[in-house]
Sequence to fold (403 residues):
Amino acid sequence: MKILYITSDGFDTPSPNNQMAEVMISDFLDNGYDVHLIQSHRTGKFDDIPPLLQNKDGFTCDIINREVFDRNNFVKRYINDLMYAFSAMKRWYKVKDADVVYLQSNPTILFPMILLKLFKRLPILYCVYDVWPGHAYDIGVIKNKLLYNIFRVLNKPCYKLATAMSVLSEDMKDKLMAEGASAEKVHIVPAWFDVKTAREVLPEENRFIAKYNIPQDKFYVQFAGTVGYVFNYKTVIELAKRLQDEENIVIQIVGDGNAKERFVAEVESLDIKNIEFYPLQPIEIVPDVYSACNICLIPLQKGVIGNGVPSKAPILMACNRVIVNSVELNSRYAKMFEENDMGIAVDIFDYDGLAQAVRDLYHSPETVARMAENAHKYGAENYSSTISTRKYMDIFDKIGNKK
Fold:
């Protein structure tokens, strides 16, 4: 079976989903599927084809150059994505031997969906990494209620045009069904970590620690990833303020994004000393980065959970790390940590509760060890790449045009 894999993103540009996509495509190829990838090229920060996929049998790729622009400019982003849909069509139209389409979500998903239905007539698996437009409206990217409702109406036909849909969590499935998606079409395929590479890296062999000569006599609370619009940097600032009396607790921020400049400027203006900033690190040392801290922090904007899910949580579990979440407590995602004793969830804006949770873990290494062990076990049972990519392959076998 041949998969026509269409995404508006590209491996050259940092994205929280790139690691998952790389592992997923590799697993498809290893299991006898052919994959033709259509992706974009924007920044050139990384290779267009990651090493894991280079020279793989059955893998082919089209790369479309795209303009680099401020992703906070919503209008320009929407128009750019719309134009990309037609550019991508010129490439996928030439692929005559595909059996199924994997279509990754983006704000203009209706247009590639209609074009594929008109000119390709293949079964489509619509992969929803975040629910549009609810995700953008709830976190404030779209502020106009009328505009939000227009996009909701535009997006609804996608739920009927898609042969099947995949989401990352129960919360997201609930959200899609509330928007009118059929429960029978929606498959839950959790985010995953690469079973071949994701592991705890001890300090003596940790490349990130060695690279920055990080002292090992501190308690590190780390966020590593995209410092973008779903990341609530104000939560980190409020946490840092409340922990300034704890000399041995240091907050690490590792990564880049469109909110980092504002974040750094505010930290400097407030003269906050217990936050350390590091640049985005190469993908191959991500396990080293996550293993360099004592606990991990996921501080999200209100409205992210349900419309999406933190894709970094699985690899954090694989690296034997405890996660402290600042999220909606009524979500299934938050309840998962308490029910399995593998981390902590604190309600958004409960800054005192968040600071107390970090202090409690700092003063109780045995609790950290117990929760980390539970997290590692839960991740292995629920979030390994072999489990999640097998679910995708089962969907392809069910809906695909078999030769």
Q: What stands out?
A: Residues 160 and 192 are 27 Å apart (CA to CA).
